[in-house]
Automatic annotation (TrEMBL), chain A:
<dbReference type="InterPro" id="IPR015422">
    <property type="entry name" value="PyrdxlP-dep_Trfase_small"/>
</dbReference>
<dbReference type="GO" id="GO:0008710">
    <property type="term" value="F:8-amino-7-oxononanoate synthase activity"/>
</dbReference>
<feature type="domain" description="Aminotransferase class I/classII large">
    <location>
        <begin position="38"/>
        <end position="371"/>
    </location>
</feature>
<dbReference type="InterPro" id="IPR015424">
    <property type="entry name" value="PyrdxlP-dep_Trfase"/>
</dbReference>
<dbReference type="Pfam" id="PF00155">
    <property type="entry name" value="Aminotran_1_2"/>
</dbReference>
<keyword id="KW-0663">Pyridoxal phosphate</keyword>
<dbReference type="InterPro" id="IPR050087">
    <property type="entry name" value="AON_synthase_class-II"/>
</dbReference>
<dbReference type="GO" id="GO:0030170">
    <property type="term" value="F:pyridoxal phosphate binding"/>
</dbReference>
<dbReference type="InterPro" id="IPR004839">
    <property type="entry name" value="Aminotransferase_I/II_large"/>
</dbReference>
TrEMBL record, chain B:
<feature type="domain" description="Carrier">
    <location>
        <begin position="5"/>
        <end position="80"/>
    </location>
</feature>
<dbReference type="InterPro" id="IPR009081">
    <property type="entry name" value="PP-bd_ACP"/>
</dbReference>
<dbReference type="InterPro" id="IPR036736">
    <property type="entry name" value="ACP-like_sf"/>
</dbReference>
<dbReference type="Pfam" id="PF00550">
    <property type="entry name" value="PP-binding"/>
</dbReference>
<protein>
    <submittedName>
        <fullName>Acyl carrier protein</fullName>
    </submittedName>
</protein>
Length: 397, 82
């Protein structure tokens, strides 16, 4: 047997053993949410995925343009609706320019690969999105991870290894906490570093017209690169990079994902443009999202769940082990509360969570139902024995 | 500054905290990766947390030696300012 084949056989065997250890399905084979169930696994924070304006725009575009030219974005012309959307997004973000990508993954990998020289340090928060790590690997740069949200540790590393890029999420997709953006910006200026801020989970959610954390703190001129997946509040399938004009003109011809993979389809662009219009005028939805998230965080805390460090619409229930997550997921699914299981490689080993993502259109009755479900399963899932629960108890003593 | 014994206890606590283990689950020569499923990022986290706690600098090239608690103690004992 060749080395490659034996490698795969070993991996398949390990994967089988691992899945068996869960004692039931976590993904495929799991119950499907019914129409009356609460789906809290989605990142559609403003519930725009089914918004009539978004759907109508997509349908009209599909009928008018079909699937478009099906070509690399390197060939996209100046009058293409995609270019108009890039301009509108740049205005909205208060950024010099925006380049649209096929996904948030493509944005982060393509950006870092295209701007970072081999061997250069990239300081990356230990919990930053995997796409940033992949970009570092693609650039053959050197990842220098720093402790989560710890600017003291980061400064120490910069002093040791010299200036470079600093890459982080502005809102973390599993833990639900924000980055210390002001401190990061100050540190970058003091040490000659440039910042890459992934705003995937804040666009639409925070700030004036929902333009994210960076503009809400008045830092647009001090952060060289902003990236995002538009598969969250934008409810589409795309990503973006906000940067200097010159860089945005360079990236489509140097970011390998942009050059060698077809660009967005016309109805993707139409849907995103419609979502941008709705989102820019959706303070009511943002307010409801904020309220709903707070009610759920406070309710869960009162029930004894340790949801720290969440301070947002992303709320992790933290059994720790994969088996623990499977038991919790099954118990909550049975009560119509469908969250998302996060196990390695999405989280570090033994830090597995069942994530509940809140959206703006959940009603008070929906939230009551989530809390009632979480209350009912506490003994069944062994909440008191979770390490996260014991950590919380220890912190209170 | 903590006494020598207290520092050794603190090392165990920090490693266990980063690896999500109870102190009684981690023997002195248990290998973090092979026996407790730690990934490379968790090991970098161990290093950074130790640096922060004890205000020392450990080069990331020392990581292969920090494969178990005994190795961590040995590397730390050799650092400047320990």
């Amino acid at each position: 047997m060749s080395g490659e084949l034996s490698y795969l056989q070993d991996r398949l065997k390990a994967w089988g053993i691992r899945q068996a250890s869960w004692g039931g399905p976590l993904y495929r084979g799991r119950a499907t949410p019914g129409p009356t169930d609460l789906a809290l696994m989605s990142n559609d924070y403003l519930a725009l995925g089914g918004h009539p304006a978004v759907l109508d725009a997509q349908i009209a575009s599909l009928r008018a343009h079909g699937n478009g030219a099906l070509m690399s974005g390197a060939f996209t012309g100046d009058t293409d609706p995609l270019r108009h959307l890039e301009t509108d997004l740049a205005d909205w973000l208060d950024a010099p320019a925006v380049m649209l990508c096929q996904s948030g993954w493509a944005a982060n990998v393509g950006l870092v690969q295209a701007i970072c020289p081999p061997g250069r340090p990239v300081y990356v928060d230990e919990l930053a999105h995997a796409s940033l790590w992949e970009g570092i690997a693609a650039a053959k740069a050197v990842a220098r991870p720093f402790l989560h949200n710890d600017t003291e540790n980061l400064e120490r590393l910069i002093r040791q290894y010299g200036p470079g890029l600093i890459a982080f999420d502005t809102l973390y997709s599993v833990t639900g906490d924000f980055c210390p953006l002001l401190d990061l910006t100050t540190l970058a200026a003091r040490t000659g570093c440039e910042l890459v801020a992934d705003e995937s989970h804040t666009l639409g959610v925070l700030g004036h017209r929902g333009a994210g954390l960076v503009p809400s703190l008045g830092l647009t001129g001090r952060i060289a690169y902003r990236t995002a997946s538009l598969a969250k509040a934008f409810a589409g399938r795309a990503g973006l990079i906000a940067c200097a004009k010159e860089t945005a003109n360079y990236l489509p011809y140097h970011s390998l994902g942009a050059v060698f993979s077809s660009t967005l389809l016309p109805h993707d662009v139409a849907g995103l443009a419609a979502a941008l219009r709705v989102m820019s005028d959706a303070d009511d939805r943002r307010k409801r999202l904020d309220d709903n998230a707070r009610v759920l965080r406070e309710g869960l805390t009162e029930l004894g769940y340790n949801i720290t460090p969440s301070e947002s619409q992303i709320i992790p229930l933290q059994p720790g082990t994969e088996h623990g997550v499977r038991v919790l997921q099954q118990a909550l699914d049975a009560r119509g509360v469908f969250g998302a299981a996060f196990v390695p490689p999405s989280v570090p080993n033994r830090r597995c969570v069942q994530r509940l993502s809140v959206h703006s259109e959940l009603t008070a009755a929906d939230l009551d139902r989530v809390l009632a479900g979480c209350a009912a399963v506490r003994d069944e899932v062994g909440l008191a024995t979770w390490k996260s629960t014991r950590r919380l108890a220890a912190a209170h003593h | 500054m903590l006494t020598t014994d207290a520092r050794q206890i603190r090392i165990t606590e920090i490693v266990c905290d980063r690896l999500e283990l109870e102190p009684e689950e981690l023997a002195e020569t248990d290998r973090f990766v092979e026996e407790h499923g730690a990934d490379s990022l968790a090991l970098i986290g161990v290093l950074a947390a130790l640096e922060k706690e004890f205000k020392v600098t450990i080069d990331q090239s020392e990581m292969p030696r920090m494969a178990h608690l005994a190795g961590v103690r040995e590397v730390l004992s050799e650092t400047k300012g320990w």
